[in-house]
Amino acid sequence: MATAAVCTPREHPHTRLLEPGWHLPTLNPHPTPCPSRCSPRPPCRGGLSTNKRRKLGAAAHFRLFEQLPVELVERIVGHLDVEELWRLRRVNHAFYALLQDPRLYGDVSIPHLQHLDPHLVAFLPSVLSGTRHFSLRSCPSSTLSTLLPACSSHLTTLDLSFSGVRDLDLVALAGLPVLDGPGSTASRRQGGALQNLRALRVKGCRRLSAFLGQLCPTDGGAETAFPSLETIDLSWSSLSLLPLPLSTHFPRLVEFNLSTTPYLALPHLADALADVPPQLALLDLSHLGLCARDLRGLGSAAGDAHLAAGDAVLVGASTRSPARSSPAMAGDARPPPSLSSPARPALHLVLSGNDALTHQSLAALRHHWAAPHSQWAGRRPVEVEHSPVLLESDDEDDVRRFVEMVAGVVMRGEGEEEGRRSRGERGPEDEEARARSALSSR
């Protein structure tokens, strides 16, 4: 049988290396290959040809973001702020449904409300029930009256500094008092948003005056509205009333800032300082016009039961207050703490800006607090922070020396300035004036 052989022209070695969509020109029978695209590939290590294309495997399986476990999604979106979450939920319906969960909005911080979209402000009340840390500074009262009622008992940190918050807003946040029936006393509604609050900052809120007195009634049968509060900042506010005694209404208070509260009467403040919470570590009383007489009664109303309660908190075990055997022992010195008991933390007392205090009066206060007959003796040491420049005493000679010292510093500065000008040297004020004149000439 005859065998026929069909000879076909050999394929150009570079045509297989061309990408799809590329064709060699037909007019030139011997085209010149492009060195950048048609350079021959180096042989493999095994000597096999590399003309064959690598086969791709099967498509990898993947899961959509909205199909991930809820725990993983919470950890991912936890790195986004509330504005980014609000934009993300508008991508599609899947994200919209996913980001409706209030648990994803545990930290809501809005430093500048005027730059936010009004639709975002309208959206916030639907998710604030899961918020733990809420910061809304410089916010008007109209917006706060809409957002604060949406908070729940999950709230642990509330920062409303320099905002228009009112007493009624915080009272409503704690739960409005309702009447159980005709002739019954008012009781606080269960599930208020302040029962787990640990930090309250209302610095610079000029519309607050007596919300603490409304939330902390004086009758002993009522429960405190702040059982877990550890930090409260009332500085630069219009507060005029404090709940008494402080240790009853703030049993876990650690930091208390009352700096620059001009409407707080000094006699009322002295009564409040007579019974401070046992765990208080920082007390800021700066710029209040205090004198040594106002601070002598620090902790004077707290008895042995209060001291024993503080020891129980520090040690971590329940202890009973020691009973006094006779009234004659009331002025006796307390026994020193045992060596096995942990050291009590010092009370840091900030008294900056109280110009009536002197070095002599502060030394007398420290001696009074450490005296055996003092109610503060045996509790904790007191660390006082005061202004850098104080009078030595109220004596006329000390006052005159202080005035002469200040006047000498001023005169010395003026003399140095005159000497510099006489020598033709330029001081910082001259350089500033020269720069200002150069700018005005331009």
From TrEMBL:
Residues 62-108 form the F-box domain. Residues 319-330 have a biased composition (Low complexity). Residues 418-427 have a biased composition (Basic and acidic residues). Residues 319-344, 411-442 are annotated as: Disordered. This is F-box domain-containing protein. It comes from the Eukaryota. It holds the Pfam family F-box-like.
